[in-house]
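User: Just a sanity check before I run the rest of the batch. Below are the structure tokens for the first item. I only need the designed sequence back.
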């Protein structure tokens, strides 16, 4: 199973309930009040502004880089899948060490001498979290979902880094781009979208949970997941669930966003029975993306969303018409 597939289907139920704000006289000099974050795995206290952050997962790596901070080390599914980091962040990582997510992650993270460890909501074992907490303050998934809203990650980092104004600036900058696109395509309001990943010749992974962090961008544009897919996700208790390719009519919507695990598999999509009858296909409202672009959407961040928007614009315009 590919790393991106793991990102689609893996999950841990970890979350954050609250964090305390630093005192008003805190500054970036290092003399700051502690920040306490309460998670379902226990409270985490960060005594000072971290200098050696280890970011595991594409979202956290992007979030740290968005603040202009170079992590001590990082590990992403993009580098596992394609052998290199995503184009929107590769020039922002400097001399940061890459963590091999297929290897002994705990020892690699420890070797980076971190003072803060950031973890995603999938792909990390509970036993690992316990070991990592003994190394440095460790922040697991914020919401308990597989994919956290990127805004939550930026807000949390703004608190930890004592850069709340910078966090607001980052969020407003990205949201401004989304708002401009929404204004350009007002017909998107009330339309439906399907987000799918063809990961084998007979299996498609389908996005069904509107609360998933990857749904935020589409919701901001005025799009919703078809109710039947939301119902299936709830019934299966899986925010992203598999269907067989013979059930491709389930993908019917105003906009189809789709990718495949290989170029060869992507070429077969148009020949699947029922594909040509989808409303999105008839309207040319299909964004058939490569793995880099689908990662930008699947693991959204302040850095990846502008990249994704550029790839989506033609299909969004067709869906809005």
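Assistant: Here's the designed sequence for the first item:
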């Amino acid at each position: 199973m590919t790393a991106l597939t793991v990102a689609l289907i893996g999950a841990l139920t970890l979350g954050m309930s609250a964090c305390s704000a630093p005192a008003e006289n805190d500054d970036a000099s290092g003399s700051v009040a502690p920040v306490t974050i309460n998670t379902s795995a226990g409270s985490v206290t960060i005594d000072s502004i971290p200098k050696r952050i280890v970011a595991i997962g594409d979202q956290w790596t992007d979030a740290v880089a968005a603040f202009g901070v170079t992590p001590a080390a990082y590990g992403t599914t993009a580098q596992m899948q394609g052998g290199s980091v995503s184009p929107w962040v590769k020039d922002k990582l400097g001399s940061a060490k890459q963590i091999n997510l297929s290897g002994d992650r705990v020892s690699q993270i420890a070797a980076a001498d971190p003072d803060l460890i950031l973890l995603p909501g999938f792909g990390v074992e509970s036993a690992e979290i316990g070991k990592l907490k003994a190394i440095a303050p460790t922040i697991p998934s914020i919401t308990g979902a597989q994919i956290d809203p990127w805004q939550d990650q930026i807000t949390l980092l703004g608190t930890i880094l004592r850069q709340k104004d910078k966090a607001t600036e980052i969020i407003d900058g990205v949201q401004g781009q989304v708002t401009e696109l929404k204004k350009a395509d007002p017909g998107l309001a009330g339309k439906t979208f399907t987000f799918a990943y063809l990961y084998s010749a007979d299996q498609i992974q389908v996005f069904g949970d509107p609360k998933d962090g990857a749904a935020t961008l589409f919701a901001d544009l005025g799009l919703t997941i078809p109710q039947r897919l939301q119902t299936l996700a709830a019934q299966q208790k899986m925010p992203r669930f598999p269907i067989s390719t013979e059930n491709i009519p389930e993908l019917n919507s105003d906009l189809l966003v789709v990718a495949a695990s290989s170029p060869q598999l992507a070429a077969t999509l148009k020949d699947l029975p029922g594909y040509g009858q989808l409303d999105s296909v008839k309207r040319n409202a299909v964004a058939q993306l490569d793995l880099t672009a689908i990662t930008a959407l699947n693991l959204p961040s302040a850095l990846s969303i502008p990249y994704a928007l550029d790839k989506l614009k033609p299909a969004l315009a067709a869906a809005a018409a």
